[in-house]
Amino acid sequence: MPEEISCKNKTDEDLVTLTLKNQDFYVCIMERYEGKLLRYVMRISRVSVEDGEDILQEVFIKVYQNLNGFDVKKSFSSWIYRIARNETISQARKRKVRPEVTYSVDDEVIAKKMIAEADVQKEVDQRIQSKEVRDIIESLSKKYRDVLVLRYLEDKSYEEIADILKKPPGTVATLLNRAKKVFKKKAKQLVKHHE
Amino acid sequence: MSNISDKTLEKIKKEKITPKPKWQFLLKDSFLLTLFALMIVIGSISVSVMMYLSSNNDFELYSRYGKNILQYVLLSLPYVWFIALLVSLFLAVYVVRKMRGGYRFKGVLIVAFSVGVSIIAGCVLYVFGGGRVLDSIFYTNVPYYHTMHEKRMTQWERPEMGMLAGIIIEKNDEYILLESRGQDRWVVDVRDAQIKGKVPCEQGVPVRVVGTLIGPGEFKAEVIAVGGPGPNMRKGHKIMLERKIMLRAY
To answer: What mean pLDDT, rounded, does chain A reach?
Structure first.
């Protein structure tokens, strides 16, 4: 009698173990991450939805092939995001699409969170237009935008970002702080310019 | 089941894609770990040989007797081992970064750890004579390694500058008969010489002599330091002799 596939009340790590015994359980993992990863792939690659889905399929196959290499003591989410990021960058290179985080809606979200954290709420509210804020976000270098997307759009912790980007957690914290400082500096320059 | 999940599972089943076996990952981990250990071993060997070469240098003789110490220091620095240590550190950082979870460590931390372990293990190796033995092994077996010592040995083949090295052929209280690497024989006046070194200054022992050239084949010693300028004076002799024979053949 075939085993009944139930994804409920199972952690990612449980599902990895179960998938290695019965591949049908892999559907649970894919369904759990499909939406999040498709959004992430598109956020960092500027590809169409169709291309994004193709990339995601490659991501899921890579993940499946490397399931035995996953360390169950670590976060599965970070691991799958890391594979998704690497595969997206590699596919974007093949498709000659420059991976960038330049979605205006996303930039808006990042901008709002940055404004709140960078302590420039008043100035920005009163004197800078939202388009200008988006321009600042877009002008930030890729290394900053990489951490900003994961922190503010994917809501990842510093530890998770470190695992995804394969950087020491201290470096992630430094990058985020620098991004905030650069943002704050540019926002203040804009305010001065308006005065 | 969603569209992507459905299509992906179908592809996995159709193309019979399977997860890579666990041993492949374990093999990769073990390989990287072994490589890292190897880098530490190379670092430790470098440190121990550098310590041996530094402790066995002639800086004291040079500085005390007014020779050109800067030139000598530059000539005698163990560049090969220093480069080996740097390369091993660079590779250690690279290997750790490739290890699972290795990205969490900062490069500085990996270098500090590797240097620390290399120094400790290198000191232990040096204390037990490893530096000397390894230097001698490399001298005998590694092509071109002897050229590192060659410069130092050449420094001791300048009797006109007051520097002479060779093996004691005969000895009495007033004179020693010395044979240099080039197989020239020297009568060395040792009446006023100060002898340095732990090994007894007797027949068959390689020595370095600081003093004055007093005539053809005659030298007056001020200081005699026991031990040859190279890791193995006799082997040095042999190499030089072989070269002479080859040159004559041409």
So the answer is: 81
